[in-house]
Amino acid sequence: MLSLGLLCIGTTCLGMTSGEAAKDYDRVTVSDENYKQMFGEKPLAIEKTDPEMAATMKRYIYGDNFEQSKALNDTERELVRIACLATIGIEDVLEIEVEGALNLGVKPLEIRETIYQVTPYIGFAKAVEALETINEVFKEKGIKLPLENQSNVTEDNRFDKGLEVQIDIFGDAINQMRKNAATDVAHFNDDLAEFCFGDTYTRGTLDLKQREMITMAAIASLGGCEPQLKAHIAGNKSVGNTRAQVIGVLTAIHPYIGFPRTLNALACINEIMPPEK
User: Fold this and answer.
1) CA-wise closest residue to 37 among 83, 92, 78, 88
2) Which of 59, 171, 202, 222 shows a CA-CA span of 20 to 30 A to 239?
3) In degrees rounded to 5, what are phi and psi of residue 186?
4) What phi and psi, each to the nearest 5 degrees, are found at residue 120?
5) pLDDT tens digit string along 86-106?
6) Residue range 3-44, pLDDT digits in tens
C-alpha cells in the first residue's frame, strides 16, 4: 500500500516525507569511487549486453548500499556479503566479491573463516563449493594454499569448549534446552555444542562479534528461519553488537537477498532489538 508518503510492505511500514528522499551524497560519484577501489577499471560482466542493469546495480550496491551500511567497517561489510553469497550459492558473484574484498585489504584468513563459520547453517555441500570458488581467486592472487590452521579444540575438549561458548552467548537457556530434549533427538544438541560451537566458534582469526554478524547474515539469507534468526539477533546483542551494526549487516546483504527476506529479517530485529523511541 502506498499513500501519503507511507510505504507498507508486509508488516513493515516505512514513513517518508517529501524531503527525506533527498540524499546527502552524490550516488554516481560515490558508486564510481567505491567500485574503482574494489575492481579498478574492470567493467561489470553485463555492462555490454545490459548497460541499464549494470548502471542500476552499480549505483545501488556500491553507492546507496555502501553509504547505508556505514555502521560496519569495510571488512565486516565484505565478510557478511561473502557469507550471504555462499549461503544463496551464487558462485560467480561470490568470486567477484572475494576479489573486491581482497583489493580492499580483507585478509585471506578472514574470508576463509567466514565460510567455515557458515558451514553449520548452510551445510557442507554449499560450503565446499564456496571454498572452491574462493580458493580459485586466492590462486589467481598468488596466495599460497592451504592457509594456516585455526582450530583451537581437540577431540577430547570440543564438546566442553563448544558448550562453554554456547552458554556465554545464549545463557542458561542452553542448559534448559539440553535438559528438556527427548532422548531420540539429544544428539542434535550434542552436535550443536561440538560442531557448530566447538569446531567452529572457537576458531582463530575472527572474534565472537564478527562470527555472530556472519551467522546472522547467513540465516537471514536462507529465509524462512525466523526462530533461529531471532536467536542470533539476540546473540549479536549478547556479544556486544549494537542495533546499528545489526541493521548494517542486513543492509549490506539486502541487494543480494531482495526485499521480502530483508523485511522479514527487519521485523525480527525490531522484535529483539527495538529502536529507541
Assistant:
1) 78
2) 222
3) -60, -25
4) -65, -20
5) 999 999 999 999 999 999 999
6) 334 455 444 555 554 445 668 999 999 999 999 999 999 999
Backbone angles phi, psi at 89, to 5 degrees: 75, 35
Q: Which three cell numbers stand for residue 167?
A: 552458554
Is residue 81 a contact partner of residue 252, using CB atoms and an 8 Å limit?
yes
The DSSP secondary structure of 147-180, one letter per residue, reads PPP-----TTTHHHHHHHHHHHHHTTHHHHHHHH
SS3 percent helix, strand, coil of the chain, rounded to 5, is: 70, 5, 25
Decide: helix, strand or coil at residue 224: coil
pLDDT of res. 277: 79
Query: Among positive and negative, which fits the CA dihedral 128, 126, 111, 41?
Result: positive
- pTM recorded for the entire structure: 0.92
Give the whole-angstrom CA distance, residue 231 versus residue 216: 9
Q: Are 75 and 106 spatial neighbours (Cβ–Cβ below 8 Å)?
A: yes
Beta-bridge partners for 7: 2, 14
Q: Is 190 exposed, middle or buried (0-12, 13-18, 19+ CB in 10 A)?
A: middle
